[in-house]
Specification:
By secondary structure, the protein is α/β, with parallel strands linked by helices. About 40% of the residues lie in helices and about 20% in strands. Bound molecules: calcium ion.
Length: about 220
């Protein structure tokens, strides 16, 4: 298991690298955003530990460029206590978890192990919910035994919902993950795409799987009612 640590504070970076090596991981350490982004894009890591405030490029910019490049390894953000809003931004951009500095190494190690386990399941070839099944290799969606034709974007949108089922996804998050659009972009395109997707995977079937959460976004889940 190979982990990239991007951290400009020498003491923290060294401490993490040493601790993770002792725990049996192969680690690389980048001390600024530019080196970190370069390594993350060119090497294959199973997990990234990413400081938010970095010289060169900040953690969000790096995360965004990774997701855009199709790199979906789990990312654990490190953030200072006075950057609490950053956590929300990081999670919206597709970070998988965050830790507030200072943290105990044992806590970090526990999060790392959880993310690596989850990361492996995220690479499964099939995603499903109720009678909806998506084959990621053949890029095929089937509900109630019926093949459903989806556009490329609809397929990406559906897999995003399925991977993060039970989680409310904001329109801005969807926009950034599916279209790589900025936060201040018009999110009407998201509403239109979700409506079309619903028309294909939900309207002809029961129960409905995509739900609108007023003022927040959408969630895909199986509900009892
Ligand atoms: Ca920093």
């Amino acid at each position: 298991m190979k982990i990239l640590i991007v951290e400009d504070e020498v003491k923290t970076g060294t401490y993490l690298k040493q601790g993770l090596s002792e725990a049996g991981f192969v680690t690389d350490l980048a001390a600024n955003g530019i080196d970190g982004q370069h390594l993350a894009l060119t090497e294959n890591y199973d997990l990234l530990i990413l400081d938010v405030m970095l010289p060169g490029l900040d953690g969000w910019t790096i995360l965004r460029s990774l997701r855009t490049a199709g790199k979906h390894m789990p990312v654990l953000f490190l953030t200072a206590r006075d950057q609490v809003d950053d956590r929300v931004k990081g999670l919206e951009l597709g970070a998988d978890d965050y830790l507030i500095k200072p943290f105990a190494f044992s806590e970090l190690l526990a999060r790392v192990r959880t993310l690596l386990r989850r990361g492996k399941t995220a690479e499964a070839e099939m995603l499903s919910l109720a009678d909806l099944e998506v084959d990621l290799i053949r890029r095929r969606a089937v509900r109630h035994g019926q093949r459903i034709d989806l556009t490329a974007k609809e397929f990406v949108l559906l897999t995003l919902f399925l991977r993060r089922q039970g989680e409310v996804l904001s329109r801005t998050l969807i926009a950034s993950q599916v279209w790589d659009m900025n936060f201040d972009s018009d999110t009407n395109v998201v509403e239109v795409a979700v409506r079309r997707l619903r028309g294909k995977i939900d309207e002809p079937f029961e129960p409905k799987l995509i739900h609108t959460v007023r003022g927040m976004g959408y969630v895909m889940e199986l509900r009892d009612d």
